[in-house]
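DATA SHEET
Item: assembly model
Revision: 1
Owner: S.N.
Input lines:
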Amino acid sequence: MSEKTLVIGAGMAGIMAARTLHDANYDVTVLEARDRLGGRTHTDSSLGNTVDLGAAWIHGPDGNPLTPLAEQLGVGMGYTDFLNESGTAVQAYTADGTPINMAEYTRGQLLANAAFIKAKASILYQPPDNPQSLKDWLEHGLPQPETMTAAETMGFDYWSRIRTEYSDASDWDLINWTMMSGHYAKLPGGDMLLHGGGYKVLIDQLVEGLDVRMETAVSHITTTPEQVHIQTNRGEFSANRVILTLPLGVLKSGQIQFEPPLPTAKQQAIQRIGFGNYEKLALRFDKFYWPREQQRFNYLSDGEPSLFNAWLNTGHYTGTPIIVAYHAGRRARAINQWSDEKLLEGALTVMQRLFGDEFGPIPAPEAYVRTHWQSDPLANGSYSFDQVGQQPTDRRTLAESINQQLFFAGEATHPHFYATVHGAYETGVRAAREVIGIR
Ligand SMILES: Cc1cc2nc3c(=O)[nH]c(=O)nc-3n(C[C@H](O)[C@H](O)[C@H](O)COP(=O)(O)OP(=O)(O)OC[C@H]3O[C@@H](n4cnc5c(N)ncnc54)[C@H](O)[C@@H]3O)c2cc1C
């Protein structure tokens, strides 16, 4: 093939777009601004075992293209029982650190989950006239059981608000609940946490043999009838077609100049689709100062959700004493402003409250790593969500190609697997097939 295709971005979408074209004998080059591959998958090895600082789970392994790949490459996959259906996966604590009765708490989570499923089904059959935020729906629409114990109520509240805010990396007043119900689709099989190499192993395999130019940041994209010209910090590149896999946060920021400007409908879609915040703090200790057998710890408050309300015990899967605190939405934006010292102090205070009675004084961690997805100019946030004000057609508009020259991929362009790695994977393949289908 004499025609040239450029792919912008070496995250999962960009790598799969290039992989698909390369395997069909197309001339393709990937331009990536970072000095590492994987984009919003980022596997850290500095703590003595791998920790995924971006995507960590395969959400829905059945029928997922990533599952056979992880199996073939020998990456560990551990089931995470968020709902605590097994009765032993989660321990929740009250604001003062008292362990909550988990039989009752779990019943509350299951009741909330059932209420969500029922509401989603009814919205699918009869979408409401006016879009509703999650907050509106929880405060005014969600039918709650008439009587619940205090522990059941805490489980119900955690699952209906905090858990949804994590899934969407946003806040309940911004999440477009009625759109989410109609559009996001989850594959079956639960949630599998990757460990023992993490997402990096998959990325390294998929990129093999591709021409990727690292540390090549795109700033201007100029389209003429003949060619697309890409200006970067390493000079100009030209091609017949370009596949853009830039994160929605980067498109929103306006840091890439398009000449001619993107169509108005696409610009509106870029602004209306939500792009969330989600940050992690991974701490490694000399030994386990928390129950090793549980996968997750939830920390409840009496009023507004507290900081440090969700913890993942990666040590449960790997045997290495690493625990990860994570924050979403406004709480993620708040802790982003904190110094490392303040963040560590906050984490240790909560750990002491939850685990101190059983494990004694908790020392400073031996090592830690924290994320800054929000202030990372190559991400500008974590992943997309359906936002109040978003239109049902916006993701389709975002995905539409322009003049068979500019093609759009990346998680936010997926009609129903957005916010995931497998969604990004599929959009890369889809955009490459659009290019292949031109002739
Ligand atoms: C904290 C966090 C937790 C997550 N958890 C999960 C999870 O458990 N499971 C799951 O399935 N998904 C999860 N996700 C979402 C998942 O990571 C993303 O949906 C997916 O990785 C996006 O892939 P992508 O290729 O669309 O975008 P990206 O991976 O962001 O790739 C885009 C690439 O473009 C590059 N780029 C940006 N600007 C420029 C420029 N100007 N010039 C050149 N290159 C540029 C970036 O550096 C990046 O490499 C999580 C994300 C985050 C941040």
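QC remark: The longest helix spans residues 102-125.
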